[in-house]
């Protein structure tokens, strides 16, 4: 299963969960998240996330 992890703090974006507090609805694909979205834990930009397989 592919997930996206913040390389600064380790927070993992899960498509099934999204980031409702950040305006990202559950089920939102990584590709559909705006480039200016930030990590809810540390504020890193989307560009600082890498895909990981869990």
TrEMBL record:
CDD domains: rubredoxin (cd00730). Its cofactor is Fe(3+). One of its GO terms (molecular function) is electron transfer activity. Coiled coil: none annotated. Keywords: Electron transport, Iron, Metal-binding, Transport. Fe cation binds at residues 6, 9, 39, 42. This is Rubredoxin. It comes from Sphingopyxis panaciterrulae.
């Amino acid at each position: 299963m592919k997930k996206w992890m913040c390389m600064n703090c380790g927070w993992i974006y899960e498509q099934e969960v999204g980031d409702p507090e950040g305006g990202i609805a559950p089920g939102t694909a990584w590709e559909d998240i705006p480039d200016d979205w930030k990590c809810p834990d540390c504020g890193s930009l989307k560009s600082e996330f890498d895909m990981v397989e869990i």
